[in-house]
Design a protein that fits this description.
62 residues, 0% strand, transmembrane helix, transmembrane, mainly alpha
Length: 62
Amino acid sequence: MNITITSYLAGFISGVSIAGFFIGKELYRFYVKDKVQKKQLHRLSKLNDNMKAKQKFQLESN
């Protein structure tokens, strides 16, 4: 009986560790993807602001 409980605990701990590893891996992948998308949106927003400023300047100069 003692070996059964020990085997159960060892299996349970290793299962939780493996599940935690894969969950952490997916969360990190999501974090990196989100970070890259935010950078892209920030760049596009800056570019859009620059284009609006140029158009406004061109309209004012005409």
